[in-house]
Amino acid sequence: MHDFVQYVESYLGSDKTPGAAGNIFWATVYVLLVFVGLSIAVIAMNWLERKILAHMQVRLGPMRVGPHGLLQPIADALKLLLKEDIIPDGADKVVFWVAPFIVVLAAFTVFVVVPFGPTHAITDMNIGILFMLGVSSLSVLGIVTAGWASNSHYPLIGALRSSAQMVSYEVAMGLAVVSAILMTSLGSKDGTLSMIEIVQRQQEQGVWFLFKFFPLGIIAFAIFAVAMVAETNRAPFDLPEAESELTAGFHTEYSGFRWSLFFLAEYSAMIAVSSIAVTLWLGGWLRPFPNLLHGATWDLAFSFIPGLTFLFLGVICFYNTARMPKHPLFKIQTIGLAAFGAVLALIGVVMFIPVVRDRVGDIFWFSAKVAGFMYLYIWYRGTFPRYRFDQLMKVGWKVLLPTGLALLICTALWAMRSEVWAGVIVPVWLGFADLLRRIF
Amino acid sequence: MHAMLEISTLHYLVLGAALFLLGVIGVLTRRNVVIVLMSIELILNAVNLNLVAFSRYWQSIHGPSALHGQVFAIFVITDAAAEAAVGLGILIAFFRNKETVNVDEVNLLKW
Amino acid sequence: MNLPPVTGNPPVATPYFFYGLAAIMVIGGILVITRKNAVHSALALITTLLAQAALYLMLYAPFVAGVQIILYAGGIMVLFLFVIMLISIERAEKERQFNKQWLVGIAAAGALGGLFIAVYTTVTRTGSGQASTIFPSVGRDWYVEGQNTQGIASLLFDQHSGTYMFAFEIASLLLLVAIIGAVVMAKKRI
From CA A319, how far away is CA A313, in angstroms rounded? Predict the structure, then answer.
């Protein structure tokens, strides 16, 4: 037992990810942790989406199943598992069975390189960002085969539209990503595709890439933010899976467990592309203001924030417990909510212990930024009307692509310290692109 | 047995040869044009595997920056993409005319 | 010659991964050439390509692995799947799958296989020291993966030592020609 504790301690002090250190045991532990964390995140996203959408639409959302609907995702999961598994008559059984697994594979394998901290990634590949973009583009294969294998019109049209949309917006995503990678190559160092090194370059250069080369960082981030919403088939780009348009598109014929696989893959893909955005532009695991408010006291102050956040969540739970109706039927729910609040407060208190406080900061900041993106996703869904398909393709090819190209050229010129040329080419190129757009 | 356990270039070459043979069998024996094109992709992949395996061997002699085999493999992948696109374009054009996907029915010039 | 010291960490469980991935690739290849349904063949080919990307990672070629996943599995195979779906293949499944000269084809492939076997056994037999220097043993091997992309970039693009810049430009021209060719081929009216 003591040896095991020593082994844990010796590993936690290392400066390499488990993949780089060749450590299969820790790599497996990290894989399991990421898997569990992702499942919890997807469950939480399900609940959060329904509650936040409801509150945006001035209604309450699920309130019955647990206290304030907290057990609703579990009820949904049980329902999906117990549903009858229907396979359409003329469907190709092998392909019908394989398609959801391709999408889930593509969505989950991406998390191998996601950096939750300087050593808290499963592995640090030299081609981290390339791997993430490539593997997330494998989900197009799953969607196309799912639509085709259903042997029915709506899924096929939905699948073709969805794949056309994803492929178009991958181009814009790639251009935005390349312009961020260009920013890593400053300071007479080689550029890098490795996710951990990208964040470390942001730390060395003292500024998040969002604010670098103002306004190029922000434009790149904006292009990526729009493209990532289209890439994951979420509102306002969710025509291929909208219930009112295409009766749920490519996953129409999938029921029960298979549908839940698609659902799981969609939320995982959302978290994955948000992780890319957070790593490339928002400084990954770095705390806010790393250089403006630097020094040991500020570090200490910021390291209290994780614990304070969980304590705050616990306090909200207790407040809602006090506001629960004082009816005997609500007794179990009140106790449940109080218990949940107690768990959150306990986690908050644990995060104040110095041993935990130093280690949990990176993961907390990364998760907080990704959670911010999830909130943005839900906000978009509640706010924007849906794009029609031709408008969608027009935005992808005629607006995002020329802007991305101009951005790339300007970033390259500015990185070579030719701000003057950047200042000239931007308006010229954008004007030219606008002219083309008006003509065509 | 020890030779089987320590993976050397030869292992990769034999694997590449096996894939190449499978691709050649596919090209020579199948009637469906799409499957013939996919067998050609198998052949190109086998060649790529050879190139990258030899690049690793070259690295062990000439240092870690001797990546010529890998660059060659990237060019081969680019070529394969171009060839697949054009081949499938030709297939679509032919299918539009004759409604068949079998290679041995492409016999309009036969006398 | 003076070899620089070993950097990085030795790989783990290499034979298991190699034989597993090799088995996946060969089984995938056999499925590609024997399936009636073209979509099944395409899915088997995707499996083979992904296993090959993993083999590239084992060969310390992460950039080629990334390119393989993005271009081959994520681009070319999507193209294949679209074309298969455009062409109605239900009729093609019921026809004869192998052409009339299949015996000759297998004989030719067998001859080629014999040639491969002859070459490889000759290589490992003569030059008895030769085979052991192909992938020197663990103590002398190279585990450099951390600079792979930068190394490829310097070969392709560097001002002074980039030997493949011209090939790169020609490749981009080739892709342009291929795009125009594919569009012209597939149009209904030119």
Answer: 10
Among C74, C85, C145, whose Cβ lies nearest the Cβ of A138? C74
User: Which string of b and e fits A338-376 if b means at least 16 CB within 10 Å?
Assistant: bebbeebbebbeebeeeeebeebbbebbbbebbbebbee
Spacing of C-alpha A363 from chain mean position? 14
Residues C27 and C60 grouped into a single domain: yes
Q: Looking at this predicted complex, what is its ipTM?
A: 0.92
Question: Residues 192 to 221 of A: which have CB under 8 A from any C CB?
Answer: 192-194
**Are A and C close enough to touch, i.e. 3+ CB pairs under 8 angstroms?**
yes
Q: How far apart are the first and last CA of chain A?
A: 71
Which residue has tokens 């006090």? A322
Q: Does C76 touch chain B (CB under 8 A)?
A: yes
Q: Given an 8 Å threshold on Cβ–Cβ distance, is A125 in contact with C147? A: no
Residues C17 and C91 in one domain: yes
Same domain, residue pair C45 and C85:
yes
Q: Which residues of C touch B101 (CB under 8 A)?
A: 87, 89, 92
Q: How many separate domains does chain C show?
A: 3
Whether residues C54 and C92 fall in one domain:
yes
Which structural domains are found in chain B, ordered by start?
2-98 (1.10.287.3510)
pLDDT tens, position by position, C33-62 = 998 888 899 999 999 999 999 999 888 899
| Model confidence pLDDT, tens digit, residues B25-80 | 999 999 888 999 999 999 999 999 999 998 888 887 777 778 899 999 999 999 99
Tokens of B2: 């020890």
Residue C135 lies in a domain: no
- What pLDDT does A13 receive? 65
pLDDT 10s digits, C66-75 = 999 999 999 9
Answer whether C9's CB lies under 8 Å from C143's CB.
Answer: yes
Percent of chain A whose pLDDT exceeds 90: 37
Residue C5 counted as domain residue: no
Cβ neighbours of C76 in B, within 8 Å: 41, 80-81, 84
Average model confidence (pLDDT) for chain A?
86
Chain C within 8 Å of A169 (Cβ-Cβ)? Answer: no
Per the structure, the complete domain to which residue C67 belongs is given by: 11-97
Closest CA of chain C from B47, distance in Å: 12
- Nearest CB among C112, C134, C155 relative to B67 is that of C155
The CA R_g of chain A, rounded to the nearest whole Å, is 23
Whether residues C119 and C87 fall in one domain: no
Residue C133 lies in a domain: no
Establish, for the pair of chains B and C, how many residue pairs have beta carbons separated by less than 8 Å.
248
For chain A, what are the domain ranges? 2-304+356-439, 306-351
Decide if C141 is inside a domain: no
Contact A130 C78 (CB under 8 A): no
